[in-house]
Design brief:
This protein is of the alpha/beta class. It has helices at 4-19, 34-42, 47-50, 60-66, 232-239, 312-326, 345-358, 373-393; strands at 70-76, 109-114, 126-128, 148-153, 156-160, 163-168, 174-178, 209-216, 222-226, 257-262, 268-273, 300-306, 335-340, 363-364. The protein has 2 domains: 67-217, GTP1/OBG domain (Spo0b-associated Gtp-binding Protein, Chain: A, Distorted Sandwich); 220-394, Rossmann fold, CATH 3.40.50.300. Bound molecules: guanosine-5'-triphosphate (GTP) and magnesium ion. Residues 220-385 form the OBG-type G domain.
């Protein structure tokens, strides 16, 4: 099956044949711009439809504000309604008896995993459930408080202190964050043989109050790991429509970004880009390793190395070591090694040695010029198909974006 980008690459080949000359310099500049621009050259009348939307680029700091992966939230269930204390009153009817109704129960607060929600940014810092109504005369029971749903992204882990309470890993998963208080009893409830006119009624109970920590473990099919400046974000921009910030300084990326690679058969592979990892990250050097929770659930990994670095093959060992420090077995996941920046002459010279050390399957490409991206896209699809088959075999529903 051919990815849609390869389909565009086919257009590029056609266009190159038609032009009979070198491409204008602007057409080969900029990651991910190559194919759409070429397409727009030949279809001037339909450029509007072909050009990717030119969204205003946000700085990493602003992007981080939009994407929230951790939230502390205070949840208080609704208070139960009070029970009523009153007696039946009717003309010519003496000793009508107690008829105070019970109060309604307070509403629960429920966390629900929703596939449409991608970040915890919409979760507020506190929620109070709906209160139950008080009981009334004539044995009228108060209405219970409505349930309050908080929509959270799929992959949210609910913690209280250090204890994990729930893992909302499938769409529709629910967890009762705070229970509403029980409604009070009306005096009718206390009617007994030895007490025909009870005055007692009880107040409604307050709802449960908890401080929960919500942590999002991003669910993507593939996770990109690499040293800072290896070109992870550039690669994500080149293969998807995601727009993570790219700059020539380390730790440009401060939070996870997910890009979707679309294939012709409508398959979508989600690829997550996370901040760079350095040696000793498990001892909290650099940005530490906490952000690795975002690739913890990825089915397969892309180890991105900068081929122009002094010893690019050593980077893979360091990365695997750090992943093992975070979680045992994480580096054993199916993976592919991506050697980036092949457009640089010093990088190209190191390719034979890299292949000799790490095996011939390493993919050499350039996120900047788009060279050899097709091989990566095809390998991604292959890994994705294998992952889906393995999930189905285990009886689990594969992740869909
Ligand atoms: N020549 C060349 N430069 C590249 C290529 N890919 C990325 N770069 C440059 O490398 C620098 C770092 O790129 P990023 O994509 O920000 O790297 P990163 O791995 O996301 O870095 P962090 O977010 O800091 O971890 C930028 O100046 C890019 O322009 C490439 O294929 N060729
Ligand atoms: Mg980056």
């Amino acid at each position: 099956m051919v990815p849609s980008r390869l389909f565009l690459a086919g257009w590029q080949a056609v266009l190159e044949g038609v032009r009979h000359g070198p491409l204008p310099p602007r057409a080969v500049l900029g990651p991910g711009r190559l194919l759409p621009r070429l397409l727009s050259l030949s279809h001037a009348d339909c450029t509007k439809h072909q050009e990717p939307s030119r969204k205003k680029l946000l700085s990493e700091k602003k992007l981080k504000r939009h994407f929230v992966d951790c939230r502390r939230v205070l949840v208080c269930g609704g208070r139960g309604g009070d029970g009523a204390s009153c007696f039946h009153s009717e003309p010519r009817k003496e000793f009508g008896g107690p008829d105070g109704g019970d109060g309604g129960h307070g509403g629960d607060i429920i966390l629900r995993a929703d596939g449409q929600v991608k970040s915890l940014s919409s979760v507020l810092s506190q929620y109070r459930g709906f209160h139950g109504e008080d009981g009334g005369r004539k044995n009228c029971f108060g209405r219970s408080g409505a349930l309050l749903y908080i929509r959270v992204p799929v992959g949210t882990v609910v913690k209280e202190g250090n204890a994990v309470l729930a893992d909302l890993s499938c769409p529709g998963d629910e967890y009762i964050a705070a229970r509403g208080g029980a409604g009070g009893k009306g005096n009718r409830f206390f009617l007994a043989n030895d007490n025909r006119a009870p005055m007692t009624c009880t107040p409604g109970q307050p709802g449960q109050e908890r401080v929960l920590l919500l942590e999002l473990k991003t669910m993507a099919h593939a996770g990109m790991v690499g040293f800072p400046n290896a070109g992870k974000s550039s690669l994500l921009r080149a293969i998807s429509n995601a727009k993570p910030a790219v700059a020539a300084y380390p730790f440009t990326t401060l939070g996870p970004h997910v890009g979707i690679v679309h294939y012709e058969d409508h398959q979508q592979v989600a690829v997550a880009d996370v901040p760079g990892i350095i040696r000793g990250a498990h001892r909290n050097r650099g940005l530490g390793l906490a952000f690795l929770r975002h690739i913890e659930r990825c089915g397969f990994l892309l180890f991105v190395v900068d081929l122009s670095a002094p010893e690019p093959w050593a980077q893979v060992d360091h990365l695997k070591y750090e992943l093992e420090q975070y979680e045992e077995g994480l580096s054993e996941r199916p993976h592919v090694i991506v050697a980036n920046k092949i457009d640089l002459p010093e990088a190209r010279a190191k390719l034979p040695e890299l292949r000799a050390r790490l095996g011939p399957t390493a993919i050499a490409l350039s996120a900047a010029t788009g060279e050899n991206l097709e091989e990566l896209l095809l390998r991604l699809k292959e890994l994705h198909d294998r992952h889906v088959a393995a999930e189905l075999q285990r009886g689990r529903q594969p992740l869909r974006w």
